[in-house]
Write a structure and sequence with these properties.
By secondary structure, the chain is mainly β. It is 2% helix and 44% strand. It has 1 helix and 24 strands. A 9-stranded antiparallel beta sheet has the order 7-8-9-10-24-20-19-14-17, with no helix packed on it. It is globular and about 55 Å long.
Length: 290
């Protein structure tokens, strides 16, 4: 079921299926969120939990037992409960079940909150460990943004511009999209990534050690989207490889996929978040329209 909130600047919709961010429109009626197309990518932008991207052979171990999980975890395929949709705020909740325990041996509560603040939409993830043991997880976003945002412009007119000069490292992936290492990633003028379709031919560009804020815009236009992700150490940029897809995903992540050829031990994967019994962890990212 889809719910809606709005203010004088934005109208936002989200669905209980995956608590997915379905739509963000401005006063002009422009749709910022990619609406899905089987030719390119028939999604809008999943919420990723409790793992981000791929596990080697879709498997991991925890305390000597092997579990199986599909790409990006099960939250994207789960039905959330909407507990609030009013006063410029929507709140969706997912709790553990027999189905989740088969894939992920923890009792938990995941809350996804969408909060309108002027021209910004804040997305807040709150994870509570309801288990007696420490839980380990990854969490992040995967929103796709329509391009171009204005008539007369093209995909190649846009760029991703970090808020400050930085020297990021790119996470290197194998052909099967598993982590193989890191290397320096050179930005244009120390801040920018000019968009061209072919930069995604080898799949996502995932960076660390960035400024924590990136602007998707064109110097030839007025509309743009600023994504802030200070709580998240990684940022990914993607569209379907080897296509002329008219969108780009900006993906704030808290962790990385598994390594090439390694079935990860959930307690030992260094970049995962950990949460002691009874504790709660909150992270967030924000999109703001220009």
């Amino acid at each position: 079921m889809r719910y809606e909130i709005s203010n004088e600047f934005l109208t936002v919709q989200a669905d209980t299926a995956g608590a997915v961010l379905w739509s963000v429109k401005d006063q002009d009626g422009f749709e910022y969120i990619w609406q899905g197309d089987e030719r390119y990518w028939n999604e809008h932008g999943a919420n990723l939990f409790p793992y981000i991207a791929r596990m080697w052979e879709k498997s991991y171990t925890f305390q000597g037992k092997t579990y199986h999980m599909d790409i990006h975890g099960f939250a994207k395929d789960s039905e959330f409960k909407c507990v609030k949709a009013e006063n410029k705020e929507m709140v969706f909740v997912l709790e553990d079940s027999e189905q989740t325990l088969e894939q992920y041996p923890f009792h938990f509560s995941l809350e996804i909150r969408y909060l309108l603040e002027g021209k910004a939409l804040k997305v807040i993830y709150s994870v509570k460990n309801k288990d007696e043991k420490t839980m380990y997880f990854g969490i992040g976003g995967h929103p796709g943004f329509n391009l171009p945002m204005e008539e007369g412009l093209s995909f190649d007119d846009y760029e991703l511009e970090f808020s400050e000069r930085c020297e990021p490292k790119r996470i290197l992936f194998s052909q099967e999209c598993f982590v193989e290492g890191k290397k320096a990633y050179e930005l244009t003028d120390g801040k920018r990534i000019p968009l061209q379709h072919n930069i995604f031919d080898e799949d996502a560009i995932v960076l660390e050690e960035t400024s924590g804020q990136v602007l998707l815009h064109s110097l030839k236009g007025k509309k743009g989207v600023k994504v802030a992700y200070q709580d998240m150490p990684y940022i990914g940029f993607w569209h379907m490889p080897c296509t002329d897809a008219p969108y780009v995903c900006i993906e704030p992540w808290c962790s990385l996929p598994s390594r090439q050829g390694i079935t990860e031990d959930l307690e030992k994967q260094e970049d995962l978040l950990s949460l002691e019994s009874g504790k709660e962890r909150q992270v967030s990212w924000t999109m703001e329209i220009l």
